[in-house]
Amino acid sequence: MEIYELIKKDREAGARMLVSEYRARLQTAAKMLCGDESEAEDLVFKAFEQAILKIDDFRPTGSFYYWIYTILLNFHRMDVRKKASRKVSLCEGELPEVQDEKNIFEEFAFRGSAEAVRKAVTRLPESYREVVILKYFEEMSTAEISKISGIPEGTVRSRLHYAKDALYAMLMDTELSPEFADRLVKATRPKGWLYKRAWSIVCSLLALGAIGAGTTSILVDSLNNKAPEEKPSSKIDSSVLNARSWRIAGGRSIYSPVADDVDKSIERALQYLSSSQKEDGTFNGRYGNTAAIPSLAGMAFLSKGYLPGSGKYSETLYKCLDSVLKLADMNPKSRFPGFMGGEGAMYAHSIGTLFLSEISGMVNDEYQARIDAVLPHAIKLIVDAQNIKKRSDADVGGWRYQPDAQDSDLSCSGWALMALRSARLNGAKIPDEAIEKAVLYIKRTQTQDGRFSYQNNGGYAETLSGAGILCLELCGRHLDPASLKAAKYLSNVYKNTLLHSGYCYYALYYTSQGFFQLGGDYWRNFESWMHKEYLKRQKPDGSWQSDSVGSEPYATSMTALALAVPYRMLPIYQRDETVDDEEERNEN
């Protein structure tokens, strides 16, 4: 008799069989999720309790274990996000204790310490830890992980990709043998990991690591079976690569002579931002005291793999976060609870919301509690602002400067839509209708010749066409005809626009993000041009000269975000897996 059948027939006997069969396995997974033995035990207990009480909801066509694991994962997420869990009554009697089985990690650890591996997993950010456990310890397929976690399969693959590199970097600083680390990483490599099969020399790679440990880019390479000159060490600072520089693009690690210059350029930019930040987390210059500039600067650090809580920019990131959170109007009697736009209006509010969503889960408990208090209100305000009755049908689905605006523009709408998409990827319940209405609005801003414009009037098309492409791509409209028309137009104008427009950094950010999403020649041609033109324009102090609408902290943040696109460290900017597959085929 199956366990679920026994539970229905005899609850006590079924509960005992359930614990005997699954407790040890779930306990191991739960401990890696939360990092604490007692919390893990509580999670398992609640998952069993809920499964027993809701046994009639289980459908025999699915896996019973995965169904219970989904319950456990949902409880864990609620705990992490400090949401009140729904109270359930106790089942009859206490669930009995059983002897722990051998930890599943120990099956892999033929040399070294299994405990070190477990600890490394617990140091990963929440979203990465979940998929690692499901994939490599629960042995679920990508499709199963997607179904259980509620995130797209492409996002699952991307998170696995970065998580394994982080694990590799952390494990190299533990007592684990290199052979074990090699085995772990090789077992998790996505297809196409090796660069250019035409090479007769295998490039052994260790890149872009320490998402959860603060060492974000560590390289170990060996060519022609030659041992590396230096072994990685915990003293290696985050995002510091040696002279042979690698970067992540299309799911592969690619060596590029230019990449070292780009990496150093971004590092100088981040040093400038850190040194120019004021004590309260804000910046000098236009909009420097709104949520916009600290959020853009914060995302620039995140895009290079730096995290709050570790590394040399931990304090800088927390200052950015603190300044944004303090701007939120949390007065329940306020007209717009959660609004943090201030002088920057909906621009600043949406950019701030995007930043809070991206950094959520990476911070300490105190700041996570503050984010959890603000973010739901900030997201709701964006959804409510979209639903304000508009003056014309052309404006339906978009956003404007103020939360109660009755018209819309593509510029404000792009940031609002990215904030909603990020929030959805982070587990927020964003109505499908909100995304669909926004997509339709964006398409209405496109002119006959393919340009996406400010208000469907052709204005600022050179600046905003990249925004239209990016938003459609992030909403799952990969290679939409509207995007391809815009890309064709943009390819003919960006060389002039991005050097002479008063909005050049705004255009640079969106064009870089949009073309990267499309991939292929769009991205390759643009990337090469961007490196050639923008690296030489960086000032000695690491900044870029402000344009007519911003400040140097603004210009520097936007340029760093544009240059760091291939690192793909920000979850919102993961791209469609078919782009990676196509580029791999072209490489080979």
Can you describe what's shown?
With 588 residues, this protein is mostly helical. The chain folds into three domains: 3-101, RNA polymerase sigma factor, region 2, helix turn helix motif (Rna Polymerase Sigma Factor, Chain: A), CATH 1.10.1740.10; 142-244, no CATH class; 258-587, Alpha/alpha barrel (Glycosyltransferase), CATH 1.50.10. The protein has 24 helices and two strands. The protein has a two-stranded antiparallel sheet with strand order 1-2. A hairpin with a 2-residue loop joins β1 and β2. It is globular. The relative contact order is 0.08. Mean pLDDT is 74; it is low at 82-113 and 173-256.
The proportion of residues in beta strands is under 5%
CATH class of the largest domain: Mainly Alpha
The major pleated sheet works out as: 2 strands, antiparallel
CATH fold description of the largest domain: Glycosyltransferase
Instruction: Provide the gyration radius in Å.
Output: 24 Å
Compute the number of helices: 24
**Overall pLDDT, averaged?**
74
Count of distinct structural domains: 3
Instruction: Please state the second-level CATH architecture of the largest domain.
Output: Alpha/alpha barrel
Task: Please state the overall shape, judged from the principal axes of the Cα atoms.
Answer: globular
Output the strand order for the largest sheet.
Answer: 1-2
List SSEs in N-to-C order.
Answer: HHHHHHHHHHEEHHHHHHHHHHHHHH
Please estimate the helix content.
40-55%
Number of strand segments: 2
Contiguous low-pLDDT stretches (5 residues minimum) are: 82-113, 173-256
N-end to C-end Cα span: 52 Å
Based on secondary structure, the structural category is mainly alpha
